[in-house]
Structures are given as structure tokens and as C-alpha cells.
Amino acid sequence: MDSNRRINLFYRYIWMMAAVFLLIGVVILPLVSQEEKFFVLISLIIGFIILLVLIYHMFENYVRPIRSSINVTNELVKGNYNARTYVKPYGEAQQLSNAINVLARNLQEMSIQEKMQGSQWKTVLNNMESGLMLIDERGYVHLINRKFLKMFGKKSIDYIGYLYYAGLEDKNIHKVVQETFLYEEKMIGNITIMIHGERHYIEVVGAPVINDMKELKGAVLVFHDISDLKRVEEMRKDFVANVSHELKTPITSIRGFAETLLEDDETNEEIRKQFLDIILKESTRLQSLVHDLLELSKIEKEEMKLSTKLIEVDEWLQNSMTLIEQQASKKSLQFSRDIQPNIRFYGDPDRLEQVLLNLLYNAVNYTGEGGNIVLTIKETSNRIEIKVEDSGIGIPIESRQRIFERFYRVDRARSRNTGGTGLGLAIVKHIVEAHQGSITVTSEVGKGSSFIVKLPRKW
Fold first, then answer.
1. Is pTM beyond 0.85 here?
2. Contact indicator for 220, 133 with CB cutoff of 8 Å
3. Would you call 97 helix, strand, or coil by DSSP?
4. Which of the residues in the chain have pLDDT under 50?
């Protein structure tokens, strides 16, 4: 029997008592004398009024608080923790109402904390740099985060509630999950996926979820994108291989010709001089390579300290232009300048001269006889733009994003013949970025290249 039904029965009981009381009065009145009827009637009326007062008292102090408590309890069951009951100033109904209100406040606070914690956990999970999937002991997916969806695509409804292998078809992932469940230990695997047309290397880490009773309740899968680490590792390997090769070539030449000179006493003077010239050339190249390696290492370790000064461009270019004009004249190149007058900006003049000379020397080296080289320097409202254009061999599309890598050469044989170390553009990029600037390249094979350096006027 529920509470509302009990209250309704209580009301019926009260009104039945009132009806019985009136019935008794109707039965008694005819049996008494005329003189006593007045006193009996007055007694019945007083008794009835007392009964009404008692009924009202019971309603206000017991029935109404109980009904209010029942309504609030029903609201709490529905999850409405804002509901509160009527509190009487005294009696057991007051204790009941206070207890229900305290319960409602506690439930409300718990609900708020739960929502806050849920929101915090959701924020943390969705802002993780690794994908995450939570599965139960049967393999059904219960939770995934935003990074996971970004890695594997689809929507959360395509994964949650389904078996993990229904959405993840890679066998290596299945193996990690199976071994995690089998050995109840952290397991690691690797997969390769395509994201927006690019290959990404993903490390999959599976960790078992074990409760206080040492029972396996599921597993957490974490997907780390290690593509950048892979690229760095490959660049490191390439760097070591390239350094070894670049050092080996001049050292082998120097040793070979030196041994020939020492072992063959009958070598004529002309050949001896030729060998010595080669040894000098290779040793100079070796010295340049070591210098550039040390320079690049210092820059990459952020040990390079810029000596910032106010640069007057017209004065700053004098030495550089003399050197480039000499080099260009040797190859019958037409070198022209388009320099906006009275340009002034802040920067390290020696480092920026290194940038300019490197770009101009590359233009001279990779432009055939009779070609053109143009240096343009201009300023905008907040930037300085330095452009070096040539009509040389150009750079293929596949090489344009890699020419700033260490030891990368478009034409390896030609680079060695010109004495290049393959580190110049890497150093240029670091110096420009140290000035908070940028460098870009546009090119067309057979028609030439254009390098554009943009530097802030003040920084």
C-alpha cells in the first residue's frame, strides 16, 4: 500500500468519525427531554468543533508534512535534487522534513561534484595528445576520446557499444589486446595508418584494468602518434650517414694522394703540384665542412647569441656586393640590384650577411654562364623583404621542401664540384628563424629559383 493511498484512507477515517459523531447526536436528541436537548445540542456542537480542530491539527502537523515529504522523495527519485520539503517548527514531522532536506542537499552537492568531475575528465580525455579506448573484459568499447576519432575517423557511435575489433581491423591492435588480456600486463605494438593522406606511425599500448579483488575488468588502449619521433630518428640516421660520407670522401682523397707522393719518388714536378693542389682543395673543403657542422650545432643548441644592431642597408651591402660581383664576373653572369634606398632595421649584421652571401653564392653556383641574378631589398610597414632570383637550373617540386635539411642536395655531383657542404641552407634557415623571420622558395626546373627572406623591422 503506497503513501498516497494511506493518506486517503486516513481522510476517510476522519470523516467517518465525524459522520458517526453526528449520527450519535441525531439518535440521542429524540431520547432526551425538551429541557436537556439544548445542553445536548450545545455539547454536540462543541464536540464537533473540537473534532474539527483536532482534524485540522493532525492535517497541519502530520498529514501535510508527510504528503510534502512524499512529493519531495518522489522528486529525488526522479533526479530533481533541487526539491525541498515543508519544515514544521516542532515535532517529529520537523525531524523527518529536516532529514529529507539534508538528504536532498547532499544529493545535490554530490550531483554537482559528479558533473564537475565528469566535465573535468571529459576535458582531460578530449585534450590528450594520444588516442584512448576503454574496453571491458568481453571486448566491448565503453569510452573513446577526440584524438582517437581524429586518428581513425568515423564517429563515437560507430565504436561505443561494439566489439573493439569491429571498428579496428589492424591485426597488430588485436594482438596487443589479446596479449594484454592473456598476460594481464602492459603490452606494446606498432601500426601504420594514413591520416589526411599522410603516413603516421602509431605506438599502441595496452594496459589491463584490474579491480580491488584482483579481477580483470577490461583494458585501456592508448595510441601514441610517434611520427615526429620517427622522422627525427630517420634524420639523425641520415645525418650520421651523411657526415660519415662527407668526411670520408675528402679524407680518402687526401690520404690517397699523400701516400702516392710519399711512395713514388719519381713523380715529376707537374704531377706533384697537381696532387698537392687536390690535397689543398680537399683539406679546405674538409675545413669548411667541420666549420659548418660546428656552426649548425651551435645554432641548433640555441647557443647562438645575436648581436643586434641598427643596420643601414646601403652601408651593410658594400662588402657583400663586391664579393658577389667578382664571382659573377668570372662566370659572365649579369648581376643586378633593386634596393630601396634608406632602409634601416634591427638585426645581427654579420649573421644576416652570412644569409645573404649564402643565397647569392648558391645563385652564382647553380646559374650557367650568361645567366641573370637579381637581388631585391624592400621594406613594408613592418617587414624587410630580401629576394634573390636567378635563372639557373631550378629545383624540382619534390625537393623544395627538403632543401633546408642538412646535407640535402638537389644535384650532389655539382654541389661537390662547387665546394658546397650541403649545410648552407640549413644554417640560413636557423639564422632567419632566430631573427623571428621566415624564408620561402619558388622555382621552376630549367628557368630558375627565387628565395624570399622576410624579417621584422623591430623585434
1. no
2. yes
3. helix
4. 1, 413-414
